[in-house]
Amino acid sequence: MPLDHKDLSYMLEVAVVSARLAGQHAMEKINYVKSSQKSDSELVTEADLVCQQIIVSTIKQNFSDHGFIAEEGKDNKLFKQPPRGDNNIYWAIDPIDGTNNYAKGIYNFAVSIACLHEGLPVLGVIFDPAADLMFTAVKDAPAQFNNIRIEAGDEDITTFAAVGIESLFDGGYPKWAVTLSKMLRCRGLGTTAMHFAYVAKGSFVAAIVEKPKLWDVAAGAFLVETAGGIASDWDGNPLWPIDISKYEGGPIKTLVANKKVHKKMIEILNDK
Fold this sequence. Notes:
The chain is an alpha+beta fold. It has 2 domains: 5-149, 2-Layer Sandwich (Fructose-1,6-Bisphosphatase, Chain A, domain 1), CATH 3.30.540.10; 162-269, D-Maltodextrin-Binding Protein, domain 2. The protein is globular and about 50 Å long. The chain has helices at residues 5-29, 46-62, 99-103, 175-181, 192-200, 214-226, 262-269; strands at residues 35-37, 43-45, 67-70, 79-81, 89-97, 110-117, 120-128, 133-138, 144-145, 148-149, 162-164, 185-187, 206-209, 230-232, 254-257.
């Protein structure tokens, strides 16, 4: 069943409200947060769980038959609830993207919410509650930052350009990251969602992430695409469509970039 403009507008409105409510809770708890280790490289806090519950509950109040896939499930596994009926709509949620920052009282994290229909993103919301930055994208409409239209732009790779990359690599700094560090300014903000948001805004020329999950990248990748950039895997293949019913939390190597540098980034990533 196709989604019309009225459907999408209402869904975006609910996503924005959900993100603000979750962000507000996260800010209220940041100075009192308790964290635990979820994996070798990931932390989880009590606020992650509550923020996810806030988002899921708010969306369910408005769309009771939609499905969910999110970061925080039982026993440190993903949370997944299939949609009821045949609408094939899933919400992909990262309640606090940048949990390591958040757990240490670093005010640089984001709420990330995407909605996918038939395996394709139709809206994305990224909210930085500490700075009150709201990035939104919805199908067949321009990407926006605090209600102002944004574009990924066409800045080239120069010593004044910036790329968002991770700061923790298995086996040490990879060759491609060393190459990039000699060509432009590498930024590791500790939140994939904000890396992608800044690509959509034209502040970064690209962002690269090696082991993200669907909920880490869905909103941001769609935001970049809506802003005129490109989202792909490291070989240049499109990320969508994705069969969420079969997705069990595997990594999705992701590159987002403006159109001028995307191909160049693919070449750098695959230069062995």
